[in-house]
Write a structure and sequence with these properties.
Layout (H helix, E strand, L loop, with lengths): L2 H10 L3 E6 L3 E6 L2 E6 L9 E4 L2 H7 L5 E3 L10 E4 L6 H17 L3 H7 L4
Antiparallel strand pairs: 1-2, 2-3, 3-4, 4-6, 5-6
InterPro entries: YjbR, YjbR-like_sf, YjbR/MT2646/Rv2570-like
Protein name: MmcQ/YjbR family DNA-binding protein
Pfam families: YjbR (PF04237)
Length: 119
C-alpha cells in the first residue's frame, strides 16, 4: 500500500480528519485523536503506523513486515509499524479499521454521538 492508497482508505473511514505533521507524515485522526500515520519508514520507504489491540499487538510485534512502532512502543503504547509495502493490502486495511475503532471508542460518548460513531 503506497501513501496515496493509504490516504484514500483512511479518508473513507467515518469522521476522519487529515493533517500533515511530524516531518511530513500523513496523520489521520478521528475525533481529534490519531489512529494512523503514514511515514517514518526505514530509509524513507513507505510505512504506516496504527494503534493495535493487545491481541493484535502481541501477534504482529514479531510478524514479518511489522514491528512495534518506534517512539510509541518505547513508551508502552500498543502501536505497530508496517514497513513492508508488499504485504496484503486487505490485511493492512483490517488493522487500520481496527485502529480507527479502538481510538473512536476512547472518545467520550458525547463526542462519539456528535460524530455518529459506534451507534
Amino acid at each position: 500500500m503506497d501513501y496515496e492508497q493509504f490516504n484514500e482508505f483512511c479518508k473513507a473511514l467515518p469522521a476522519t480528519t487529515y493533517v500533515m505533521q511530524w516531518n511530513n507524515s500523513h496523520v489521520w485522526k478521528v475525533g481529534g485523536k490519531v489512529f494512523a500515520i503514514g511515514g517514518w519508514g526505514p530509509d524513507d520507504q513507505p510505512a504506516c503506523i496504527f494503534k493495535a489491540s493487545n491481541q493484535n499487538y502481541d501477534f504482529l510485534k514479531d510478524a514479518p513486515g511489522y514491528r512495534p512502532a518506534p517512539y510509541f512502543a518505547s513508551r508502552g503504547m500498543k502501536w505497530i509499524q508496517c514497513t513492508d509495502t508488499q504485504l496484503d493490502t486487505e490485511e493492512l486495511k483490517y488493522y487500520l479499521v481496527q485502529s480507527h475503532k479502538i481510538v473512536s471508542l476512547g472518545l467520550t460518548k458525547k463526542k462519539q454521538a456528535e460524530l455518529g460513531l459506534n451507534q
